[in-house]
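User: I've been trying to design a sequence by hand for this structure and keep getting stuck. Would you show me what you'd pick, starting by listing the structure so we're on the same page?

Assistant: Good idea, let's start from the same input. This is the structure you sent:
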């Protein structure tokens, strides 16, 4: 029979092998930067109507509750590399608003109207809203190297997208006048590569830290969007962009919701200050 220490070590190794530490690391990083986080959350699969789990739901909204940005995150620990097949033409002819994220219908209409107004006034959108302009090569497919059989990359992409669509459906049913923006994300603890043909027709494989996977799957009459695929090492950069995005959207809808937090930095500062105060009182 295993001793207590031996059993504890076996349990610890099993937890590591199942990839749970990655989920914990991602959740902690988001919490530390002021995001609301729920781990091991469930959603209703829009196709099968069954309850399914998503690793992390990260959310930020305004105080009065009419604005929310969601990040539906699948976490994957991989001993074998992931490969994004990319092309400069992946998003050619595709509406960049639909390739940006999923929205509530009210949120989409408001976002399009306001960003078009900004453009008419001569202000450039490039750099203002992270991820809106996806220049260069974007992925049209993903796979895992050195494997046969079940495609775990497709399964992860479908899980992130279905969870995002489930939030959209729920918002439409329960809060039709809500400003909702939903971004499906996959974080991998492993190597990520992109592959494409260069101008000479030669196969190129390059190591990368992040990419956009165009994933317009049709699910329950709704069209999918782009999925963010990134390594754990790139997560701090992703969070920085997510904070900027959220702050810019809050500013964009300031006339709709004037009582917003000014930034996630302030949310993080308030949370840390409160935690310190509670700790000192114990």
């Amino acid at each position: 029979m295993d001793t207590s220490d031996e059993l504890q070590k076996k349990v610890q190794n099993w937890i590591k092998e199942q990839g749970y530490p990655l989920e914990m690391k991602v959740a902690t990083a988001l919490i530390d930067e002021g995001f609301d986080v729920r781990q091991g959350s469930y959603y209703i699969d829009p196709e099968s109507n069954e309850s399914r789990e998503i690793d992390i739901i990260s959310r930020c909204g305004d105080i009065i509750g009419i604005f929310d940005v969601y990040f539906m995150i699948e976490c994957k620990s991989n001993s074998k590399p992931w490969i994004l097949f990319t092309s400069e033409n992946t998003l050619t002819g595709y509406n960049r608003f639909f390739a940006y994220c999923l929205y509530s219908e009210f949120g989409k209409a408001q976002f399009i109207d306001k960003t078009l107004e900004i453009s008419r006034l001569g202000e450039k959108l490039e750099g203002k809203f992270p991820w809106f302009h996806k220049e260069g090569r974007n992925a049209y497919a993903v796979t895992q190297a050195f494997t046969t059989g079940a495609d775990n990359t497709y399964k992860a992409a479908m899980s992130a997208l279905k969870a995002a669509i489930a939030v959209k459906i729920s918002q439409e049913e329960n809060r039709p006048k809500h400003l909702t923006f939903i971004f499906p994300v996959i974080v991998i603890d492993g190597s990520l590569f992109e592959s494409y043909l260069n101008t000479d027709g030669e196969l190129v494989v390059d190591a990368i830290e992040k990419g956009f996977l165009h994933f317009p799957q049709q699910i329950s009459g709704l069209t999918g969007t782009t999925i963010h695929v990134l390594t754990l090492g790139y997560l701090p950069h992703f969070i920085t962009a997510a904070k900027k995005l959220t702050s810019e959207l809050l500013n964009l809808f300031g006339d709709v919701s004037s009582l917003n937090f000014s930034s996630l930095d302030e949310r993080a500062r308030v949370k840390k200050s409160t935690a310190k105060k509670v700790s000192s009182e114990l």
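That's my pick for every position. To get oriented when you compare it with your attempt: Residues 3 and 9 are 10 Å apart (CA to CA). The mean pLDDT is 88.
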